[in-house]
Specification:
Elements lengths: L2 E6 L4 E5 L4 H10 L7 E4 L5 H13 L1 E5 L6 E5 L6 E2 L1 H6 L7 H8 L1 E5 L12 H9 L3 E5 L2 E5 L8 E3 L5 H12 L4 E5 L5 H12 L3 E5 L2 E5 L7 E4 L4 H13 L3 E5 L7 H9 L3 E4 L3 E5 L9 E3 L11 H10 L4 E4 L8 H8 L4 E4 L2 E4 L9 E3 L3 H12 L3 E6 L2 H6 L3 H7 L4 E4 L1
Helix pairs in contact: 1-2, 1-7, 4-6, 5-6, 6-7, 8-10, 10-12, 11-12
The structure holds uridine-diphosphate-2(N-acetylglucosaminyl) butyric acid.
């Protein structure tokens, strides 16, 4: 298993180009199952989760031609597609559940594995299933699989999600695109990745409109061929902005519209970072002394992203004073805390709130990654630690950060991948 060796503390200076968004690419790729015509998706990030989704599409019968740089996929679907998403495919990436909506909508049946829990929480899919049922999907759960079918095309309906869910909103939007008649989805997640999905579908002739948290979908019979460029990864960008703030760095973050991380940039400004935004780049200068923020709370967009919580915690460890972070999205997303403590952090957890002492002098140590964002938090802490840190199990990082060691090396981090 690969690991990283980081020799801290490191200075951060230079520029970094942000890759395409993993969490926008996944639903867009799943939605290509709705098409009879060729689709071209550009700006895919070269990360493991995208390979997993492409392999899943291939296993269902899609033909995929990747460009030389592997960022563009040309996708055509066979006349006869398979509708079986196996456990081995779904268990490695929960995002695979996003094929259920398009399979049932386009092929009227599917056998899709239940994803199971994961380290950050139980992550059930009850909202996906209940809402798809309202569109006419019949299903039973047997042997760990969702056996689903519908009598022909799904039928538009009025649906209100009991709670905001990114995945359920995406699955339903994709399914309703080819349903008969109108669908109204209320209490939707409105993360930028979801808006990117609806922009993609509309570029192919779908009829989707937004009004606040309500999504109005007028079902169409079929979609046209289209070419679409996925948005940039706001969490990757946010992670690099935290790195610059944390290490008193000076960084140019390129290739992303700053408005997608406005909330997080506002937080970084409050810690003392000097930030200038342009149409497609951010200039960020970290402060000498990081100011603590009393209460950070993760929330659905436009709140502070849960996918930035672990990185912000490292920043608060280095702040000159006490702070707290409340995690409101996932029930168990503090796996990084014990590992940060091994590097010297003083953090106390009570229910879903972490109380952080601040003024931490991180000392390099051997630590272990548990999930994608927890792993990147350990990388950030190692960058500002004294001495060597070994970060084990970095396959979690490879799932969602494109060649992170190359990007970090370029801006001054002494990092090495050990095979
Ligand atoms: N939930 C349910 N029932 C459902 C669906 C969700 O109870 O049917 C709960 C979840 O357990 C969780 C909350 O609702 O407590 C929110 O979950 P959501 O459905 O919004 O999350 P997701 O779709 O599973 C996506 C991202 C995550 C990101 C969350 C929140 C993808 C592929 N994944 O997950 O990304 O943290 O939204 O923004 O888009 C990551 O990239 O590291 C990552 C975990």
């Amino acid at each position: 298993m690969d690991k990283f060796l980081i020799n801290g503390p490191c200075k951060i200076k230079g520029n970094v180009t942000i890759s395409g968004s993993k969490n926008a690419s996944l639903p867009i790729l799943a939605a290509t199952l709705l098409f009879d015509q060729t689709v071209i998706i550009k700006n895919l990030p070269r990360v493991k989760d995208i390979n997993t989704m492409l392999n899943l599409l291939k296993s269902l019968g899609s033909k995929i031609i990747l460009s030389k740089d592997k960022r563009t996929a040309k996708i055509f679907n066979k006349k006869k597609m398979k509708t079986f998403a196996s456990y081995s495919m779904v268990k490695t990436m929960r995002g695979s559940i996003l094929v259920l909506g398009p399979l049932i909508s386009k092929y009227f049946k599917s056998k899709t594995s239940l994803p199971g829990g994961c380290l950050i929480g139980a992550r059930p899919i009850n909202y996906h299933l209940a809402a798809l049922k309202k569109l006419g999907m019949k299903y039973e759960l047997r042997d760990g699989y969702i056996l689903a079918k519908s009598k022909g095309r799904l039928k538009g309906a009025n649906i209100k999600f009991p709670n905001i869910s990114v995945g359920a909103t995406e699955n339903l939007i994709i399914a309703a695109t080819l349903a008969k008649g109108k669908t109204t989805l209320k209490n939707c997640a409105i993360e930028p990745e979801i808006k990117d999905l609806t922009k993609f579908l509309n570029s192919a002739g779908a009829k989707i409109k937004w009004s606040g948290r309500t999504c109005l979908i007028n079902g169409v019979n079929s979609l046209n061929s289209t070419e679409y460029e996925v948005m940039a990864d706001r969490i990757e960008a946010g992670t690099f902005c935290v790195a610059a703030t944390l290490a008193n760095g000076n960084l140019e973050v390129k290739n992303l519209r700053p408005d997608v991380i406005k909330t997080e940039l506002d937080l970084l400004k409050r810690t003392g970072a000097i930030i200038k935004t342009y149409e497609k780049k951010i200039l960020i200068k970290g402060p000498k002394k990081i100011k603590p923020i009393k209460h950070i709370k993760t929330k659905e967009w436009p709140g502070v992203a849960t996918d930035m919580q672990a990185q912000l915690m490292v920043l608060m460890c280095k702040a000159a004073g006490k702070s707290s972070i409340t995690e409101n999205i996932f029930e168990n997303r503090f796996m990084h805390v014990a590992e940060l403590q091994r590097l010297g952090a003083k953090i106390n957890i009570k229910n879903n709130t972490a109380k952080i002492e601040g003024n931490t002098k991180f000392i390099g140590a051997e630590v272990m990654s548990s999930d994608l964002r927890a792993s990147v938090a350990l990388v950030l802490a190692a960058i500002v630690s004294n001495g060597k840190s070994h970060i084990n199990r970095i396959y979690h990082l490879d799932r969602g950060y494109e060649k992170i060691e190359n990007k970090l090396k370029k801006i001054g981090v002494k990092i090495k991948r050990i095979k």
